[in-house]
Amino acid sequence: MTTARSLILFALAAVAEIGGAWLVWQGVREQRGLLWIAAGVLALGAYGFVAAFQPDPHFGRILAAYGGVFVAGSLLWGVLVDGFRPDGWDLAGAAICLVGVAVIMYAPRG
Predict the structure, then answer these.
(1) Chain-centroid distance, C-alpha 79
(2) How many other C-beta atoms can be found within 10 angstroms of the C-beta atom of residue 23?
(3) Is this prediction's pTM over 0.85?
């Protein structure tokens, strides 16, 4: 159950952070305005709270592992929202990052 909870929290954190950054990007680069930017800032703040609920007590471990989730999630966001088509190198890099997440977060520790 702890691993499932952790994976759900990583997914929620990715949506909050990547979505928040995307909203800021839209507000600034696509000139959609201050409401988009404000929504992005709120989502980015929510990311910090979601990450704090990870079951592991070590901030550095959580943020290091989340980095891999962010890489893969950003590519997925690009596919789903912006029509981005990753190439094989993008996919290989994301897979390597997710293996890193699994090692950092879920390797047995004694």
Answers:
(1) 15
(2) 21
(3) yes
